[in-house]
Structures are given as C-alpha cells and as structure tokens.
Amino acid sequence: MNKAGERLYNGLIKENPTFVLMLGMCPTLAVTTSAMNGLGMGATTAVVLAMSNLIISLLRKLIPGKVRIPAFIVIIASFVTVLQLLLEALLPELNKALGVYIPLIVVNCIILGRAESYAYLSPPIPSLFDGIGMGLGFTFALTCIGAVRELLGTGAVFGYSIMPHSFTPIGIFVLAPGAFFVLAALTAFQNFLKITGAKAGKDVSKIQSGCSEDCMNCGEKGCSRRFYDNETNMEIIDLEKEEN
Amino acid sequence: MSGLLKVSSNPHIRSKVTTNGIMMAVVLALLPAAGFGIYHFGPRALMIILLSIASTVGTEFLFGLYKKKMTITDLSAVVTGLLLAMNLPVSVPWWMPVMGGVFAILVVKMLFGGLGQNFMNPALAARCFLLISFPAQMTDFSYDTFTGATPLAALKAGESVNVMDMIIGKTAGTIGETSVIALLIGACILILLGIIDLRIPGSYIVTFVLFVGLFGGHGFDPAYLSAQVAGGGLMLGAFFMATDYVTRPITIKGQYLFGIFLGIMTGIFRIFGPAAEGVSYAIILGNLIVPLIEKITWPKAFGKGGKRYGK
Question: Which conformational region is residue B126 in: left (phi greater than 0), alpha (psi within -120 to 50 degrees), or beta?
Fold first, then answer.
C-alpha cells in the first residue's frame, strides 16, 4: 500500500490542487465565504473525486479513447446527482449555501484532470487513493481560505466568534475580492516557505511542486502535467488537438 | 517640432524634471484643498491626513528596509497618503486611514513592483477597499453638529442644493473634495507648471456633462448640471487622480479616450447606480483598461501597417 500513501501525500502537499496546480479556482473563489462552506464544498468534491476516479479506473479498458470525455462526464455527473440529493435530504442548509456550485462540480477541472491524467491510466486502488488525496488537499485548502476569510470578514471561525468586541469586521473579505486576496496570500506564503527552504540548502523535494524536468522524458506516471507516455511512445492527451 | 527631433551622440541635455519635483508640486497643489478641509472640518481632519501620510510613508519605509532599496525620498508615498486622506470622511475611526495607507502602498504599489508599476491608483484603490469593507463608516459624512446628506445624495433624492455653497466648499463630503475653488487653484498650479494638461480632465468633464445632460432626466438644466459637476469627487478625481502619470494612457489619443470612458462610467454610476457617487470606481475601472486603450491607440511606425500593394 506504499503507492496509496504516496498518492495521498501527492494530493495533499506536493501537487495540492489549489495552492500548487491552481485547479478548480471557480468553486475555490466563490464558496469559501466561511470555513463551513469551504469544508462542505471540499468534502463533497472529495467524495465525487474518489468515487469517479475508482469507477473510471475500473472501466478504463472499456472506454474507447475517442469518447472518453463524455464517458467521464456521465460517470462524474451520476455521482454529483447522488450527492446533491443526499445533501438536500441530510444537510439542506449547506446545500442552500453552496447553491449552484454543487451541480457545477461536474465540470470541476480537478475531477476531469485527475480522471484524464491518472485514473484513466492507472489501476483502481491507486486511483481511489489519488482521488482521496486530491480531494483532501482541496478540502484542506478550501477550509483554510474559508477560515481566514470568515475570521477577517465576520470575526468568527466555524461560526464561533473569537475576535474581541472592538474588532470591526472587514467586509471585503467575505466578498469576491477577499477571495483573491486570501488565495494570493496563502499561495505566496507557501512559495515563501519553499524559497527560503531552497536557500537554506534544505531538501525541498518533499514540498516542491511538480517537477523541473521536461515532461517528454518524465517517468512519473501520476504527474498531472504529463501528456506523453514514453513507455508506449504514445501521446496520452494531445493538448493542441484537445483545445480545437 | 524638427528642433526636438535632432539626433546627436551623447552627452544629451538632461531634463531638470525629477520624480521628486513632480511629487512636490502635486503636494503643493493639493495643499489649498487640504487646508480648506482642515478649516472646514476642524482639527480632526488634520489628524486623519497626518495618520494617512504617516502610514503610507511608514509602509514604504519598512518595505524599503526589507527589499534594501529605499524609495521614500521620491515623495510618491506622501502624495498617496494625502490623496487617500482627502478621499475619506472626517468621521472615520483613526485606524481606517492607517489600514488604507498600508493597503495602498503594500498591496497596490509595492507588490506590483513599486512606483511606475502599479496598475491602478493606490489611493483610489485603498479608498474603494475601505468603501467596500466599511460602507457604514465610509458614507457617514456627519461632522460637528451637521448630519445632513452630501449634495450629491440630496440631488439624487430630488432635493435642491445650493451650488454656491458647493463651489466654496461649505458642504458635507470627504475631507478634500468639497471645495471646488481650492481644487481648481491646485489644478491651475499643476497646469501652469506643466505637470498635467487638460486632455484627460477636459474630456472627462465634458463627456460627463453631456452624459448627464442626455440621460440625467433633467435635460441641460444649468443648475442641475453645475451641481453634478461641482458635487462629489469629480474635480478631485479629474485633476489629481485621473491624471496620475503611472495609471493613465501615454498616447495622446488614448488620453482623450480615457477621459471619455471615465466621463461615461461616472455618469452611469451616478445616474443609474444605487450610490450617489461613482468617481473613484470609474477611475479605477479606467485604470484597468489603460493597456487596452494604449494598444488600440499606439502610433504605427513609418512603413508599418496600412494596405499592402502588389500582392
């Protein structure tokens, strides 16, 4: 199960979808007005991500390459529908707060990205753990952003007021611009840690994002930037064609 | 013109214009309006101005220490601090100019590379930051015993206003925006010194007047139009903030376009928007489209572009 642990670490820290890959920015910026919303959104996405990764990996031999994207969307959309119905029944308040961003999980680029670059190419168990790792990384990032925004914008975290009475809430942090400020500051903080670590001569490979090698000769199978499989000498995703 | 295009080897004649000198002149030109603000609103206005300048200069100083590159001597932080204070109501709590000053210098200016690299006017960005964060305090224009609305708010509510009072400045508003006379004295100083010209302020105000005349619902009624022009931050914005060297277009055609855009946006915000004032939002929106304006108005080099023959 070493592979599974490595996948979890990869998703949480090394290729954290929010702070490193900068994927899924739309829900990140839109729903993190409070720590609870961030946690809810992250957890929902994590479940969809893990389940869809597992199913796509199981079906990877059956799905023809040409129609893989529609096939992924059908699988992802099924899980999102299930989850939305569950949320409506069990956590109606959270469902209301997240609103349209729950159905929009279908087109969340983290999920499509992992399906495309990992689950479609890898066995089920690592795929499941890749999904869990990425999902937890996303949840962690969203909860952090939500907590900071809620603290500065309303003086509370998870609804518990912790700031002194003299504190005037800085309203901009629960509005859209605040999301950009907090995301930028947290990403800058993460880069700062990496750069100071590199300057001090420490081994930063553990916290380094992505890689410095060229993608054509890269051996790492799970890398999300990889689009050329040098074992089979086959293009996995032709980025140019994909856009057209 | 041909004299200016003389080509020679170095040493070249050096212009005596320095950043320092320009900033000094802008501070000088802002002093009449700031002085009137202090006279009109009392000593608390002086405290707000000093706090704001102290926080912008202090932030620039600390950032300079961290980067080991001291830039406070160019006085641009003083201008930013003064402009920010002039854009605040006198009743704001003391920490608000401090927070605004730190935001203006640190986030809007220094993180983007310092003076010359800021993509929007730091003082206005800080004002908008405060306005969005603390709408209650930022639109509370009560001072001394006076608790009425600003002339623009009264105008929006359909009440009549005294245009003469607005020109002298005996109205409610932010510290530096009330007196049209004091602002125009400052603008004249800048124009006479050759630091700004009338391209942006002129096209801005003319477009604004035309827009308000066409869509304001009062037609070209002189009393209404002059109240709209004299009210709010239009004079301060048009002469001192839209003309900021860093955030205005550098092409001449582009400057006219910029002024027209600002006039239209200010008109839209004032007439169709929920708030009575919209100068600051109009100018920072304009700042954002400056690269696009420059792109379409960039002069073509001789021999480039145009039709091609012989194909």
Answer: alpha
- Amino acid making up residue B75: L
Residue B106 corresponds to which amino acid?
L
Contact A74, A111 (CB under 8 A): no
Structure tokens at B174: 């932010």
Q: Which fold has domain B19-297?
A: Ammonium transporter fold (1.10.3430)
**Residue B183: pLDDT band with limits 50, 70, 90:** very high
Identify the helix (H) or strand (E) that includes residue A65.
none
Going from N- to C-terminal start, the domains of chain B cover 19-297
CA gap A7, A127 in Å, rounded: 8
pTM, two decimals, is 0.79
Residues 6+ apart with CB under 8 A from A62: none
User: Among candidates B262, B269, B290, which has minimal Cα distance to B120?
Assistant: B290
**CA separation for the pair A78, A55 (Å, rounded):** 11
Task: Give first-to-last CA distance, chain A, whole Å.
Answer: 40
Nearest CA-CA distance, residue A91 and chain B, Å: 31
CA distances for B284 relative to B87, B149, B208, B288, angstroms: 14, 25, 16, 6
- In this complex, do A177 and B134 lie within 8 Å of one another by their Cβ atoms? no
pLDDT of residue A45: 92
Task: Give the nearest partner residue to A168 out of B107, B132, B134, using CB atoms.
Answer: B134
Are the beta carbons of B135 and A170 separated by less than 8 Å? no
Report yes or no: A27 and A143 within 8 Å, Cβ to Cβ: no
Nearest CA among A112, A72, A124, A121 for reference residue A222: A121
Q: Identify which of B93, B107, B134 has the shortest CB distance to residue A171.
A: B134
- Give the Cα-Cα-Cα angle A190, A193, A197 (nearest 5 degrees): 145
Distance from CA of B154 to the nearest CA of A (A): 27
Question: CB–CB of A170 and B133 under 8 A?
Answer: yes
d(C-alpha A152, C-alpha A105), whole Å: 27
Residue with tokens 């002194």: A164
Cis peptide bond N-terminal to B97, omega within 30: no
SS3 A226: coil
A10-66 confidence digits (pLDDT tens): 887 777 888 877 788 888 888 888 888 899 999 999 999 999 999 999 998 898 888
Cross-chain residue pair A171–B133, CB shorter than 8 Å: yes
